[in-house]
User: Fold these one by one.
Assistant:
Number 1:
Amino acid sequence: MTAAPAARPLLPRAARVVLAGLTLAHVALRVWVRARPRPIPYGWAWLLENPWRRRYRDPGRLADACALKPADRVLEAGCGSGLFTPALAARAGHVTALDADPRYLAHAARRTAGAANVTAVHGDLAALPLPDASVDVVVLVSVLTEVPRPVDALRECARVLRPGGRIVVGEELFAPEYVRAGTVDAWARSAGLERVARQGGAWAYLHTYAPPHSWR
């Protein structure tokens, strides 16, 4: 009676070594980024634009999830390359696309050149260059976890909200700066906000926050 052949591994040894190396590198990068929060450098803009990301962060679906009204004034804080800006502008009255890197702003401006209701503004979440109670919706997609003081950033976003306004926060598991949804909820509570809606799952979530009682 002959012995049964040994089962082959699901992945060749070389592939397993590469996969393990990539996993360790990602974990190390995540630890480093969380210890030193900072925006994604302009040279890494391709990370924001890759087709795989659009599978779970499609601009049109994201804009729909924000439940914008035609008269809404929207602040897209940390607009980056402007991936979501045209979709937001198609559903709102006006979009202020804000970023701390002028190169990202120029990229976003080229992408929205045909949209008369988009204004590109240089600034950051630490001190928004907008007056109190001036926008209806603040959109923060993969941005909040890139700032050193996320609670202060949320307070600053709340400052520019009109009565009944809201803040939409989206985070994605693939990003090195990703944090769990519960962490963002805790930051929001510390900033005097409450969660009023939740969409998505651990892979890519979208939470909506508002000052207490303003959403009712």
Number 2:
Amino acid sequence: MDFKAILMGFGFALMWASAFTTTRIIVTAAPPLTALVIRFALSAVVAIPLALAMGQSLRLNRAEWRTVIIFGICQNALYLGLNWVAMQHVEASAAAIIASMMPLIVAFLGWLLYSERLRPIAVAGLVAGVLGVTIIMGVRLRHGLDIPGLLLCLAGVVALTVATLAARGAGGSRNMMTIVAMQMAVGAAALLVPALVLEAGRPVEWSAALLWSFLYTVLAPGIGATWIWFLLVNRVGAVRAATFHFLSPIFGVAIAAALLGERFGASDVIGAVIVAAGILMVQLARIPQPAAVPGGAAQPRR
């Protein structure tokens, strides 16, 4: 993995983790589902011209539409919808830690449901991840962490895990930006009626912080992080690119503490580092081992 790929990975992880802080600013000032519908609609409007400029087609095949529907509903409508509602009451750092569990849950369910072999380093990573989350959440619960909000965040990360497992092997399309745009449109359509029914008439507390947070959420995590992610996957492959998820809990806790003044105690630092180590071990275990060739040399698997 070259230096440029490392920078891209750090940039992706930083933008992805920062979304929890900007989301917290948005949902404490505006109705969360309504804000998400607007965010998805704007992201789709921006992404479609980008896809056309990149020479991509707006006509997708059946497998591509399957990816659009699965991620549009499970990732955008369910995962983000549940998280945005929960984060009216749950701190950004806590939501970031819960969301960072996704690679760990994917590995566990891959073993449980698909009999995928877990190498010893992956098993150690799963144990470390659970330990780190337990340390952080145990202290947060004693300090008044909102239980209904916590459960919504957990339901959201389960929805994201289901989407990830269901759409495995869907990568490699030449129309990835089109797929991103269509996912956003599906998410907006799925949340439109709930937003109208549940949040009609709710006021918005307008401020510069709200406007900048919303703009940043649309452009950086919504479009920028997606674009960097696909560039990184094309450069180093999906498995190696996913290794950078180990930075998310550390960045998520640190950004929330710096910008929102959220709790940043010893348990948060220790727990975030342990969770990050667990994610790194699980992801490293997924990288194919060099295949042995005659003469004792090693050749990477293709």
